[in-house]
Amino acid sequence: MQTGNTIFVGLGGSQGAEASKPYGWAKSLTSIFFFFLGCFLWSRFSRLLGPQQRRTLVWSFFLQTLAMFLVAGLVAGGAINGARSTIPNDIDWLQEIPVAILSFQAAGQLAGSRALNLSEIPTVVVTSLIYDFGSDPGLRKPLTQNVKRNRRGLAFLGILVGAVVGGWVSRETDRMESALWIAAAVKMLVTVSLVVWPEKSG
To answer: Backbone phi, then psi, for 83, in 5-degree steps?
Structure first.
């Protein structure tokens, strides 16, 4: 996610004021900064409470869920312009708010993945996931013999299907908040599952 943003910042800085979107890079810079800030704070929050404690994971994903619902509510309520037709335009500075919130909460999602020792599921970047999947020496093993490969494959399919569904919903409604509501609901389900998930015996 931040690889693309870094490229956009670099390209935007090289274009100058004569570009069609002279401040388009600002969203990418905002995303990078708040993702970094989120990494800094979420990791410390996790270590403070115990990274693999149920309460830590529940609180983390609960706060992420609230952030998602907040952004969806801001767009649905009209405080932030959520029309797809505004995407080709130059920056609307109010749209920096949802970019900042979503980037910050995404860092919490990555912190949760690290806390659960699920490094094979980076959750926010696909490039390394595809490499790890393709380079896995046990790629052709039966399903029951390579759990990490299975997780990588399912993670890739989940991201792909999520992108397709989100894009289709946004196109049909010509708005962005519908996809945000769906994403927030999915994250809420993850939070609830963490609450009821049985403890590992032993």
So the answer is: -75, 135
pLDDT in tens, 125-161: 788 888 889 999 999 999 999 999 999 999 899 889 9
Distance, in Å, from the CA atom of 173 to the CA atom of 189, rounded to the nearest integer, reads: 24
Burial of 62 (0-12, 13-18, 19+ CB in 10 A): middle
Contact status, residue 146 vs residue 138, Cβ threshold 8 Å: yes
Q: How far apart are CA 99 and CA 79, in angstroms?
A: 14
For the cut 90, the answer to whether the pLDDT of residue 52 exceeds it is no
- Tell me how crowded residue 71 is: count the other CB atoms within 10 A of its CB: 25
Name the region of 192 (left: φ>0; alpha: ψ -120 to 50; beta: rest): alpha
What tens digit of pLDDT does each residue of 89-103 get? 667 788 899 999 999
Residue 54 and residue 41: Cα distance in Å, rounded? 18
In single-letter form, the type of residue at position 161 comes to: V
Give dist(CA 202, CA 199) in Å, integer.
9
**Integer Rg of the chain from CA:** 19
**Tokens linked to 91:** 């920056």
